[in-house]
From TrEMBL:
Keywords for this protein: NADP, Oxidoreductase
EC number: 1.2.1.79
PROSITE patterns attached to this UniProt entry: ALDEHYDE_DEHYDR_GLU (PS00687)
InterPro entries per UniProt: Ald_DH/histidinol_DH, Ald_DH_C, Ald_DH_CS_GLU, Ald_DH_N, Aldehyde_DH_dom, ALDH_GabD1-like, GABD/Sad-like
Catalytic residue positions: E229
Protein's UniProt name: Succinate-semialdehyde dehdyrogenase
Molecular-function GO term, any one: aldehyde dehydrogenase [NAD(P)+] activity
Superkingdom of this protein's organism: Bacteria
Family statement: Belongs to the aldehyde dehydrogenase family.
TM regions (residue ranges): none
CDD domains for the chain: ALDH_SSADH1_GabD1 (cd07100)
Domain Aldehyde dehydrogenase positions: 2-448
């Protein structure tokens, strides 16, 4: 796989980049390590100022960045612009809060003296990122780790190289030392080589189980810290007393946003019997209203998928689902375009042994299930190998929150769409991975939580000091 921008709307190969060399990798690690040493004595507040500069620079360059993202992977240009703004919001938040979050924490103890945990940087961190949010995925890792003082090396997806390159250039243009975020077009062997290097102390991956397993295996071998943000088959649960205007207004959007290529897309609609027919009819109507076209045209509402390969994979999954007995309740009409469009589809009657029941379909296909009780809804939501996010609609938000907390995922939003914001922890359980990005939790992902216990003298009369010295 080479690093290439191939516009999925025109199929034009816009640019091809060579792989990074051994020397480039060595230089990035060496410079990163040197910067880590320098960061140790730099006041955190100085990095906060630089991060605010990054936010300002991103906003200044938003149009150019949005266009690059759309040409790289096809998303609607309005969605690309929203992603750039979200990156700026994340940068501003960590710039404002990072220093406070990293303050030492005092611990009450029976040990002699005063105990506290200090939060230190670990060293160079590698990030391996996917194409579906080419900028946001970088910022989720970069902002907190920059505040901590961990320099980063970015290995982005092979099909979003221009977005990766430009993002890192903009960070440098904002005054951030170049070695704080180095984009390298690494092949898989280089990823393993980087993980093996003692100067690299962690790896953050967002992507599929395939990528996650390979990287976690290498990290396990070399005992490096990891966070894994992997796939999802998020449930969208509709209880019998839900406000159906809200439900129908949101359901199609959360499935078709970014052409359905979102880890937290609602991929399984689990709907109570009394509102099921209404739900399905409205979902069909709304799927039928999308406007396919040039993703750079603001009037377009259905974008192409990110690559021909992704489209072909999804078509195979749809064929497989139908061959295994699912009903095609709706599919958008033929689209007259050479672009990598996938016609949005709705599946029902998915049996437990159908691959569509438990395999993530990363594109505009909704699966809809009828249930007869809340317990059945929760059981179905949980009968899945993934556990990333979810949405639940209920006439009573408090009751909704109680049902939501029985769902085995890392995040659930009640009566609203899922919003990824810097103050909210993001991540999942089961095959969706482990660890959290963003928020006070994500801030600590790659930190040495060092205990310091300070005493004037040893005290052998203290039971904790006198009994066991471990
Ligand atoms: P992917 O194939 O795993 O790719 C993700 C990244 O991992 C890319 O940079 C890829 O590089 C790299 N990679 C893959 N295999 C590797 C290996 N053996 N060694 C080293 N690096 C490797 O994921 P994808 O299919 O493109 O992305 C979509 C998936 O990501 C979906 O499952 C989606 O749900 C998930 N996702 C999760 C989150 C979350 O926060 N939980 C967010 C967004 C997406 P190449 O491009 O060079 O192969």
């Amino acid at each position: 796989m080479t690093y290439q921008t191939v516009n999925p709307y025109t199929n034009e190969t816009v640019v091809t980049y060579p792989f990074a060399t051994d020397a480039e990798l060595e230089s990035a690690i060496a410079q990163g390590h040197e910067l880590y040493e320098r960061f140790k004595t730099q006041p955190i507040a100085e990095r906060g100022e630089l991060l605010h500069n990054v936010a300002a620079k991103l906003r200044e360059q938003a149009d150019e960045l949005a266009r690059i993202c759309t040409v790289d992977m096809g998303k609607l240009v309005g969605e690309s612009a929203g992603e750039v703004e979200l990156c700026a919001i994340i940068a501003d938040w960590f710039a404002d809060h990072g220093e406070d979050l990293l303050k030492p924490e005092a611990i009450e103890t029976i040990a002699t003296g005063e105990a506290e945990v200090r939060h230190h940087a670990l060293g160079v961190v590698l990030m391996v990122e996917p194409w579906n949010f080419p900028y946001y995925q970088i910022m989720r890792v970069f902002a907190p780790n920059f505040m901590v003082g961990n320099p980063m090396i970015l290995k982005h997806a092979a099909n979003t190289p221009t977005a990766a390159k430009r993002f890192c250039e903009i960070v440098a243009e904002a005054g951030v030392p170049q070695a704080a975020l180095t984009n390298l077009f690494l092949d898989y062997d280089h990823v393993t080589k980087a993980i093996a290097d003692p100067r690299v102390q962690g790896v953050a991956l967002t992507g599929s189980e395939r990528g996650g397993q390979a990287v976690a295996e290498a990290a396990g071998k070399y005992l490096k810290k990891t966070t894994m943000e992997l796939g999802g088959m998020d449930p969208f649960v509709v209880l019998g007393d839900a406000n159906m205007d809200d439900v129908t207004d949101l359901a199609w959007r959360v499935r078709l946003y970014n052409c359905g290529q979102v880890c937290t897309s609602s991929k399984r609609f689990i709907v109570m019997d009394n509102v099921y027919d209404e739900f399905l009819e409205k979902l069909k109507e709304n799927f039928a209203k999308v406007v396919p076209g040039d993703p750079l045209d603001p009037k377009t509402t259905l974008a192409p998928m990110n690559t021909k390969r992704a489209k072909e994979k999804l078509q195979g999954q749809l064929d497989d689902a139908l061959a295994n007995g699912a009903t095609l309740a709706y599919q958008f009409p033929e689209i007259d375009s050479e672009g990598q469009f996938f016609r949005p589809a709705i599946l029902t009657d998915i049996a437990k042994d159908n691959p569509a029941y438990s395999k993530e379909m990363f594109g505009p296909i909704a699966t809809v299930y009828r249930v007869h009780s809340e317990d059945e809804a929760v059981a179905l939501a949980n009968d899945n190998p993934y556990g990333l996010g979810g949405i639940l609609f209920s006439g009573d938000p408090d009751h909704g929150a109680e049902v939501a907390s029985r769902i085995e995922t890392g995040m659930v939003f009640v009566n609203n769409f899922m919003a990824s914001l810097p103050e909210l922890p993001f991540g999942g359980v089961k095959l969706s991975g482990y660890g959290r990005e963003m928020s006070h939790i994500g801030q600590m992902a790659f930190v040495n939580e060092q205990l310091i216990v300070k005493a004037a003298h040893p005290d052998l009369t203290n039971p904790a000091g006198g009994l066991v010295a471990i």
